[in-house]
Amino acid sequence: MKNKREEDEMGSEGSGSVLKRQRVDEQSSASGIGNPLVPYNDVDDEDEDFERGKTNNGGEVEGSNTQVVAAENGEDEEEEEDVYGQGDSLERRKSQFEPREDCPYLDTVNRQVLDFDFEKFCSVSLSNLNVYACLVCGKYYQGRGKKSHAYTHSLEAGHHVYINLRTEKVFCLPDGYEIIDPSLDDIRHVLNPRFTRDQVGQIDKNRQWSRALDGSDYLPGMVGLNNIKETDFVNVTIQSLMRVTPLRNFFLIPENYQHCKSPLVQRFGELMRKIWHARNFKGQVSPHEFLQAVMKVSKKRFRIGQQSDPVEFMAWLLNTLHANLRTSKKNNSIIYECFQGELEVIKESPNKAITEKKQNADDQNSDQRITDGGTKHDIFTETSRMQFLMLGLDLPPPPLFKDVMEKNIIPQVPLFNILKKFDGDTVTEVVRPRVARMKYRVTRLPRYLILHMQRFKKNNFFIEKNPTLVNFPVKNLELKDFIPLPMPKENERLRSKYDLIANIVHDGKPNEGLYRVFVQRKSEELWYEMQDLHVSETLPQMVALSEAYVQIYEQQQ
């Protein structure tokens, strides 16, 4: 009898352990929430929930185990059904993590402090994995498991509403359930602005102003950019490129470049969408994330805190964007479609062999004369075709002497005069890399023509700035009257008329000056002056009175 009794007890313990393991497995599978988030370094959300499931139910499992033993001893046979049905525990666990629409903490969300323009890094661990923004204070924290920084913040500060910066899901912590509420959609739109193709097509027809949370009005696409520290050269470049319609439309729809993993391309697209978004919480945008990508990709050639040349930055940006966006089969991209033109270059340089013979003869003080068929053989002529994204124009040198009033005369030159550099006949003297005479002729005009006036020249001691004013038309720049253009193909019309859409200006001394830009708003054909955060309407006549440095012209269609 004793052996029988021991076997029964062992059997009951064995069945109890099996039931305990079965229950834990079932609860862990029931409590495992499909989590698409990037794992948190310390404790993953799923693992934490699983651990919580085990610890919460450990006492109940043991309790049910004793109940089973008791039932086998004949004490309470009805309790055994609760073990297999698992009672209200699973229902409670299920309801705890089911999405809810009636979160009591939604009224604590403070939209005034939300700013998604900065890098998505945890403010404690500085990690970019699984980052959440607290919608009460605006700070970024990592994870939502029990040992995570967001969970700790929710307990310490009493802030309970958090949005995942990657998936845009909103959660209530420390409870852990997802909040489903349409009133949070405006926050999602600010976090990740989105446009449909129909909305993109209507942007240039929209004349409506938008209102920020502080009550100020702003025009989508005409918002100021924050100057973080001597980054005005970036701001004027971005504001100018925003006026190029095909480029803007391309980057407003992320599906156009989703194949590209370059951080520069992604951040440029995000910045473009934020500038043109009509539902922003504030009337300005900070290009902080874009600048971080620029510093990384350019290997700190362009960086925060160091003034740079917008011509160099624009050339680098366009070439880098093209290199990242081009397809493997064709060397083409939206950058080349907008800005690429073609030049015919005739290069006349001294024949190397003849030059060396002459130099040797001079060195030896020889009276022997070298005659090799006249001067034609002394010059080597080379003709080539080259693509360009922008054209550099040479300004005439400023006067050396002051006038009678002891003031320097600021010279003026028509744009057409300096455009003659590309008529195919004007000779340009080049010293580097070798002495040569160059002639340029435009063989194909781009859809958007970028001109830059070479105002700055470096010598051995300092940088000189040429203050010459360039007189240019704001509308109807007719190139065919001043430079010879190729004949169009059959059934094609020669498009040689251009309208100005952006004009970058430099004010002040070469090393200490500031950059500002004049841009045109197409929906109303009004001109705006933009300098970092300051945006003001101006007259077209004022655009032509400035020291133009970079100009973007749009081809009339």
TrEMBL record:
One of its GO terms (biological process) is protein deubiquitination. It comes from the Eukaryota. It holds the Pfam family zf-UBP. Coiled coil: none annotated. Signal peptide: none annotated. SMART domains: ZnF_UBP. Residues 73-83 have a biased composition (Acidic residues). Residues 55-68 have a biased composition (Polar residues). It is found in: Nucleus. Keywords: Metal-binding, mRNA processing, mRNA splicing, Nucleus, Spliceosome, Zinc, Zinc-finger. Residues 101-198 form the UBP-type domain. Belongs to the peptidase C19 family. This is Ubiquitin C-terminal hydrolases superfamily protein.
